## 1
Amino acid sequence: MRNAVWENIFRRQGKQLSETALALSNVPIFNGLSQKEIREIENIIHQREFQAGETIFQQGDPGLGMYIIVLGQVQIVNNQDPDNPIIYSELGDGDFFGDMSLVDEADRSATALAIANTRIIAFFRPELKDILTRFPSLGNKILMNLAEVIARRLRKTNDLLIEAQKQTSGGSK
């Protein structure tokens, strides 16, 4: 005979993923992580809200980590020529940016600007280093996923460069 009291006592708590954990699990850098591993990441990330028009980071700032858009819109802009800014991209819910800063300390190559009220998750290099120390297997999964994301982007950039070269050389080569 089943006893509802005992079933409730021993029932697994927290099976549902929080909104933050769900957002994390949808980012390619966190692909293949268990719910437990996602919760470990959730414990160390930072959350912040930005108003429309507020700068998340400025071109030339030190690169400290990556950002995930939970809700809102962000524009990535090159402001090298303030009279002629170049919009690289407009990102929305679930998109992420700044991920190369997890592996290098180069300055930001563009400005990230909230163009709508935006809620973000920030994951910084010191937290990644801490994970690598405390949970090497989890850290290695994240690094491998990050390498795949960066490799995919590099391949896409190479394809675009080849296409641009073909167009400028009149289609030869």
Note: Helices lie at 4-10, 19-25, 35-42, 125-134, 136-168.
## 2
Amino acid sequence: MKPEQKSENQNNFGLMRLVFASLVIVSHAPEMLDGTSDREPLVRLFGTLSFGEFAVDCFFLISGYLVSSSYISDPSLRNFAVKRLLRIYPAFILAYLISILVIGPIAGSDLGGLDLEEWWMMVSRMLRLGYPVLPTVFPDQMTHFLNGAMWTISYEFRCYVIAAALGLIGAYRRPTIFVGYILAIVALNAAFITGQITDQMLDATRNHTFRNIFLDPVHMSRFLLVFACGTAFRLLDGKIPYRTDFAVFATIALAALMFVKPLAEPALCLFGGYLLFFCAFRTPLIAINDRYDFSYGTYLYGWPITALLIHYVPDIGLAQLTTSAFALALMAGALSWFGLENWAIRQKRRFTVKRTFRQTAASS
């Protein structure tokens, strides 16, 4: 008998996303306060991944699962693109503009001194989902970024593009295609980890056009692997037994391998992925951040709020900084959701095409 588990609409993903957004703040706070990761909790414990890296990887695991599931249930490229664009862009653009126009002057940047080309570059970066950049921001702090958390969004969006491409070539229906893809990504990551791909070889990727499309190849290969692992868990739905004893084993294996730097991230993909989906589907439902998803806004505003707290309260302690930043970022996330994100998501009905019974049957 297959183990009973919740459906995709009955899960703890909402709560988990909010937890991971909070872990990013927990990770960034000591690094922004000290300029080092010496007081970062997970780094102190394992000496490998930070809570920020851990949480972002978990975000990508969840996205890999849910985004591939979205394509499988509705393999319309137009509908897929509309859903992804409406989920990512509106809140990102608002956070980007607030970072530039509101936080920038507070952080010490002179917007009046920017020329037309610099303004165009900022608009271009925004449309490409790049993080906001201004000269001379927070000069009194250890980190000099307007929003150092937004850089991952452009990688996630590119994973969406790859997910659509995999769907178009039938990788979700033909296991051999997807297995070949994931083996290629594993080999690429292994080449980076073992030094088979050297800095000299990477020099060819440092031109402007390549980086605009593929970003940093090391980070891109990492995120593609994590995202693909999330997709693999979706494709193996009903075949993976989510059992408590297996979850205990996965916990022990993950904890042991987290001490080994080259193996920490692969272990997180495999054993951490199992634990993540076990908690999502087999633990009691906790209806937090379920109907109203504050996690994206919390993630987008966590960094600038932390920076502003350090700016206005220079002698703030780490515990006070972390708790205050999370509380304020959660409020910002709620405002982002109720003020923009929820409205934007509802607009997909205007732009998506309803599938007929014949289309649905033909794609299944």
Note: The chain is about 70% helix and 0% strand.
